[in-house]
Amino acid sequence: MARSNVVTAPAVRSMTSDDLSRVLELEESTFPQPWSPGVFRDELALDNRRYMVAEADDRLLGYAGLMLLGEDAHVTTIAAAPDARGLRLGTRLMLELAELAMASGARHLTLEVRMSNERARDLYRRFGFAPVGLRKNYYRNEDALVMWATDIDTPEYAARLAEIRASLGADDE
Description:
Helix content: 25-40%
Strand order of the largest sheet: 1-2-3-4-5-7-6
Distance between the termini: 21 Å
Number of domains: 1
Number of helices: 5
CATH class: Alpha Beta
Strand content: 25-35%
CATH architecture: 3-Layer(aba) Sandwich
Structural class: alpha+beta
CATH superfamily: Gcn5-related N-acetyltransferase (GNAT)
C-alpha cells in the first residue's frame, strides 16, 4: 500500500459548514450511498451531534460524526481519503469521538459497520467495541455488524484511550 504524500501530521478539529463542499467530495468518493448536502447541513445544526474533520497541508483527509443520546453515543459516520491511508486517520478520528462521548457523560458507544469492512472492524475492536448483533440488509445488499463499547466512563477505558493517544504521538515524531 502506498504511503500518503501528506507531509504535515493531520490535525483534527470541529467540522463547520465551510467544510461541507470538501466533506461531500470525500463522502461521494468513499460511500456507495453518500449522504446528501441536506443531511450534512441538518446534522451540523443539531445540538446533540458532533462532527470532526482531519486535515493537513490544506487538504481535508477525513471526517467523523457522533450522535449523543444520554448514556449512549452513536458513531454516525467515519471516512478517510484512500490516498491518506497510513496516517491512522481512523484512529485519530475515533479517538476524538470517544473522548467527546466520554466528556458528554456517555457510558456506551455504538456503531454499525459493513460485514465486509474488516479494516474498520479491527479499528473498532482496538477501541473496545464488540459485536452485539446484526442488521440484515442495513446497507444496499450487505448486512451491518452492530458493535458496542461499554463502560466508557471508567478509568480503564480512559487508560485505553491514553494508550491509543500515546501511540499516535509516537507516529508523529
